[in-house]
């Protein structure tokens, strides 16, 4: 299996989960939980599409690192919001996930300029 396939597959799974999260946010919860689930769904969908579309960049080491950072970042950020909305867990990992997303996008920009 190439390094591209897991990123494309994760992108598809994130998009599917985003649709489910958005539906649950719209019909299953109210208030702050709805806001958190909606934000998690938006981040999961956007980054899922990005991972699926950019998976071919994983053929190069810097691209792989950037996509891995995006993957970890969205899982930590959105996952922290989902855990807070569903189980009242603290959003401890959201800031770290957000930093990984920012760093991953900046690294992807560097990777793109070096290609």
Overview in brief:
With 115 residues, this protein is an all-alpha fold.
Task: Tell me what you see in this structure.
With 115 residues, the protein is mainly α. It has one domain (4-114). The protein is built from 4 helices and no strands. It has helices spanning 4-27, 31-54, 61-87, 94-114. It starts with a helix and ends with a helix. The mean pLDDT is 97.
Termini, distance in Å?
23 Å
Specify the helix fraction band.
over 70%
Structural class: mainly alpha
How many β-strand stretches? 0
The overall average pLDDT, rounded, is: 97
Write the layout of secondary structure elements.
Layout: H1 4-27, H2 31-54, H3 61-87, H4 94-114
Which short descriptors sum up this protein?
4 helices; 115 residues; single chain; mainly alpha
């Amino acid at each position: 299996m190439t390094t591209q396939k897991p990123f494309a597959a994760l992108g598809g799974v994130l998009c599917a989960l985003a649709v489910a999260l958005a539906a649950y946010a719209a019909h299953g919860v109210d208030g702050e939980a709805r806001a958190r689930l909606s934000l998690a769904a938006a981040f999961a969908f956007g980054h899922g599409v990005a991972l699926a579309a950019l998976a071919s960049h994983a053929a190069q080491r810097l691209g792989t690192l950037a996509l891995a950072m995006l993957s970890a970042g969205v899982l930590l950020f959105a996952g922290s919001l989902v855990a807070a909305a569903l189980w009242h867990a603290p959003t401890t990992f959201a800031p770290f996930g957000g930093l990984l997303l920012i760093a991953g996008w900046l690294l992807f920009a560097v990777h793109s300029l070096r290609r």
